[in-house]
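Example for tutorial group B:
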């Protein structure tokens, strides 16, 4: 996940308050925690607000769900990587990556562009249910 400079700085400040073992490099705009991921239990949640007009659709992540072993970037597994980085942009937007895509179903509907020539697409998000008991054969019965 990437955040604009101001948002990343705010996130880095919050990290430092929550754990003294965190190191956030404001120049490189990344954070690591000097502990094994399995030994970390941070009570930090991140909320991304998707907005449409006056409606707000919050997507919430808990930092513990995002943490990655240091070996994913060539560090020791005694270090935990926080996969949130800063960019040079000071925008209100955030880029979402693989971790987001693993937690939510994402759909994209191009029909406004294709069918009517409008200049927008429709994107939908739905949180995945880990142990959802739904079976396709239950809904579609073949006669």
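The residue assignment follows.
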């Amino acid at each position: 996940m990437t955040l604009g400079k101001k948002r990343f700085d705010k996130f880095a400040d919050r990290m430092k308050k929550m754990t003294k073992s965190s190191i956030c490099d404001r120049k490189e705009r990344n954070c690591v925690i000097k502990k094994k991921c399995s030994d970390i239990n941070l009570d930090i949640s991140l909320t991304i607000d998707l907005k449409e007009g006056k409606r707000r659709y919050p997507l919430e992540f808990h930092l513990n769900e995002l943490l990655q072993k240091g070996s994913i970037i060539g560090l020791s597994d005694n270090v935990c990587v926080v996969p949130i980085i800063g960019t040079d942009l000071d925008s209100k937007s955030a880029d979402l990556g693989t971790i987001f895509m693993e937690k939510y179903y994402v759909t994209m509907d191009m029909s406004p562009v294709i069918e009517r020539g409008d200049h927008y697409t429709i994107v939908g998000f739905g949180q995945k249910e880990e142990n959802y008991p739904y079976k396709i054969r239950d809904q579609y019965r073949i006669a």
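The chain has a mean pLDDT of 79. Compare this with the pattern of hydrophobic and polar residues in the output above.
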